[in-house]
């Protein structure tokens, strides 16, 4: 009995993943709001009604794609920030991680870049939520670093959001560069990203806050 249940559960998970993969492939050329579940189920080879065994609607499928796209990047970048290397080394490694992630998961990056301000509210909220959690994790790592001594929580959070915004923007720019195929375009994006993050890092070293914002 338990063996049969395990087989059915494994098959259900396999079909669910097939739906996610099919949707992601179709979304390379269109937005989620224009994608119908019949298109997705046709690719997978199941009846449209079977879709509802896995997702309530296309919005829920989109939210699952957001989790796929951003979940692993959180872990990698957070691990780098937790290390005690010099700021410049952490920046270089972080940009390298983002570059590798874009090359390995271009469809996920394209999906997030398009749907971040897209027409499906649940997906917009899921992306905003993931980036908010990302900023919280980065802020926690930055707070523990000696250079943040004396900083108020709001300023640390502001700094974290700057870093997260730059990484998201860099990922989208790298994807565009890879797709354009222009020689040296991706390398230029990487160089600009490193310079931008270093500029933020230098500004961090001299930031003292402003009166009226929790600082004396």
TrEMBL record:
All residue ranges annotated as the HTH tetR-type domain in the record: 13-73
Protein's UniProt name: TetR family transcriptional regulator
SUPFAM superfamilies: Homeodomain-like
InterPro entries attached to this UniProt entry: Homeodomain-like_sf, HTH_TetR, HTH_transcr_repressor_FabR
Keywords linked to the UniProt accession: DNA-binding
DNA-binding is among the record's keywords: yes
Species: Streptomyces decoyicus
DNA-binding region listed in the record: 36-55
Matching Pfam families: TetR_N
